[in-house]
């Protein structure tokens, strides 16, 4: 397929309301210099691919100066590019080209914690207890006669205590890895610094920010105990994420930060936005992050936990749409990201998992709101489950045995030999190895092949952009058409688009919704109706 009309950026300041955003895990997307690591120049070279795929924006995971303990979510310099990924000049060239192709750029911002190599943390270590330098982080004395126990019972999301003791006897808080000390967001210098960092990237043209751990920056006064921990009950505190209250997450005061950020975003032209990675106890509490005086979006993560069933999908959709009604802003949809097992594998892996993942894509892309795609889902990539332990780099792996490396394997682009065109011609390096089965899943192997997952995504995205019923953010109408089936319609200008998903165990006749315009598996015609196979979905159109 050729791109007929590569338009420059639209001037629509509300572009994010119904955008399709493609998440680029920079380290694993495309390697331009043959060191086995994805980089900004690699992204730049692949922009035409993304344009042709039909996405509106890219979200780039952190590419800032970092010791890479947590894949770059440990930032040592918020205003520079890590040499592993290129230079600031590469970033500027990339964003210029992206904008020329009509693609917007969202960058990740990591405000909850810095790297332990950040000059502020180094200064805090050197300056000692009671110093002004320590005030920018959360240092505290320990409990017990000699302060030998952590200040409270908080646990790291990556497992183990959230406190590490330094040689002079004090402890510092890290909700993630010890190499990611939490900042003290009650400190004016911390606030001023991040406001400046926002401006730094806005000045370089970024269209938005994905805010990492957006619910975490403020901790309850007095740092009170949670009251249980893996040590005492075998239950990890992180099980409460999105389900209960924790003294280190979703504190009311965190909203002051976003109320200060919003005017900064609004002071730039062209609709600069921010999306929160936030976890809160209830939809009502999550909704508080969104609104005209705070952030534009919060990820709705419920799809990540939904099983392959019409009922579970319907619940997710209803909950998310209800949330969006609370705030009067469109919702977001996420089937996969760099922190979760890829959905092909979650839905059963192998052929079945792939069929279901393709169907889920049609479900998601027919819904109103903003859809986030994770690189490689358009190729139907599964989770790589058998990476050798010694190659795994996720810091959570050592602490919990759970690793997010399997969804971060470099993208296969072309060719017969691993890493399948990830690097320049002849390069054999990739920081994680791709399985041999990925030869058949590469972009080159799927492009132009009818029925391939890549062509399915391209077709669905094209229709999503052109079809009046899918334009805008209007609601959906559920159709009750039988158990195991999920069906809903969207209408506009006398046309109706109906998405039907079959999660049952037999093919189902679908009548009365008009002409099929895209399907995740081939449909057969039967006496004027259509047979929708198991584990598949299709869009029907009536005008
Ligand atoms: C990111 C993770 C990261 C963590 C700590 C999460 O929200 O998505 O990849 O490990 O924040 O920064
Ligand atoms: Mg490279």
Can you walk through the features of this model?
The chain is of the alpha/beta class and 543 residues long. Among the domains are: 15-111 and 189-216 and 253-382 and 450-460, TIM Barrel, CATH 3.20.20; 476-542, Sandwich (Immunoglobulin-like). The chain is built from 15 helices and 21 strands. It has helices at residues 40-45, 47-53, 88-100, 119-127, 188-203, 230-233, 254-266, 283-287, 302-305, 310-327, 343-346, 350-366, 395-400, 443-446, 453-466, and strands at residues 20-24, 57-60, 64-65, 77-81, 104-109, 139-140, 163-165, 171-173, 208-211, 273-276, 297-298, 332-334, 370-374, 477-478, 485-492, 495-502, 508-510, 515-519, 524-526, 529-532, 536-542. Strands 11-10-9-5-2-1-13-12 form an 8-stranded parallel β-sheet. Strands 14-15-16-21-18 form a 5-stranded antiparallel β-sheet. Strands 6-8-7 form a 3-stranded antiparallel β-sheet, with no helix packed on it. Strand 19 (524-526) and strand 20 form a beta hairpin. The radius of gyration is 24 Å and the shape is globular. Beta-D-glucopyranose binds at residues 70, 73, 110, 176, 212-213, 277, 338-339.
Key descriptive features of the protein:
Immunoglobulin-like, 8-stranded parallel β-sheet, alpha/beta, 5-stranded antiparallel β-sheet, single chain, binds beta-D-glucopyranose, binds magnesium ion, 16% strand
